[in-house]
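Notebook entry, structure prediction.
Reason for the run: the old model in the group folder had no record of what sequence produced it. Starting over properly, with the input documented here first.
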Amino acid sequence: MERKQAEYNNLDERYAIQGEKYQGQQYSHIYFTRLHHMRNLLHALVPSWKPHLPVTTVLGLEEGKDCIIVGTLYKHMKLKPSILDEYSKERSAIPLVKPHNFMHPDDHLILEDESGRVTLAGAIPPAAYVTGVVVGLHGKETSAGNFLVEDVLEAGLPPQITSPSINEDKYVVFVSGLSVGSDSFNPLQFQLLIDHITGHLGDENEQTIASNIVRVVVAGNSVHILPRFFNGQTVASKDQSRIAEPIKELDIMLTQLVASLPLDMMPGSNDPANFSLPQQPLHRCLFSGASTYNTFSSCSNPHQFELDSVQFIGTSGQNIDDLYKYSDAKDKLEFMERTLRWRHLAPTAPNSLGCYPYTDKDPFLIESCPHVYFIGNQDKYETRLLQGTVSCKLSYVVLAPNLTSLSCRARKTKG
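New structure, fully documented this time:
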């Protein structure tokens, strides 16, 4: 049997940090860029949404007069962690338990533009939004100086590039949370997956399925290194092998895969990569075996690419994990859908999610709706097909950090 091929196009150049330096840039620049870009989109939608209402600024509000304002949301949260609070808690005799979610009934939203800010009330639930989202609001100013919201305008799903008709099955395997070197890692289980992907297991039917796999994407958290080695102190010589051993073991296993088919390697929050988004590709010297093959690609996080003109975009999970801390939803798939409708991969960056202090762009803006949107390192595996307008259809995938449900098939979609 011959393995099927797919034309691959890496689109990660927008996430590359080349020549930029930390020279005292202010994070306000990325907010200004985001607001400018999103405001143009929302203003274009207003005539078909509320054509009879004027669009104004926060400074131009008049009490009791219906209007539309566009700005960036700020969520005031009573339980949000503060570095000053952390400093005082370190000196507290009683350690405080850190909650997994920082929402509180007293949370409220504020809308801000270049002219000022106003507290929001009415038909905009704070639980559904986070700091950094740009929206349009229909309402009016009250006598108390608040803005009473009657309706909310989000940018919605971005336009989608039409993909060609797919006449044959091709598969992409997503893997996340391998954690090589941890107590939970099972090398035999991973080897079983490798043997399946490379066509060394099963009958002719299973091998036929394996031959349709055209690419493997490793979506972060691939190795586990003890936290005590990241305290800034010099690592003792006896401990150096304990740091390198998980990476060597991962490299041996990846070499088996790249000898058979192409593979994309993404960094995650626990990998030896930069902390802030976008995480830059893991250095190829870490994978002395796998990097000798031209089928091995070390990619950024977020990662964006095309396979036979089918667009993929995804992260190792930090953006969705951060949304879970500061807002509420039925499941992780709903968080993913919100990022698409907000047209932003990481709306909480840089407020609560670390990112590079860009001054002239916001690389996390979603300008084109992908056909497949994936997130790694989540509690369980889930998929959903999201249908927007006639011209926008995509599948999105949540990857569990285990090997029980790692492979998935990208749905064939038209339009």
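Summary: Confidence is low (pLDDT under 50) at residues 403-415.
The old model has been moved to the deprecated folder.
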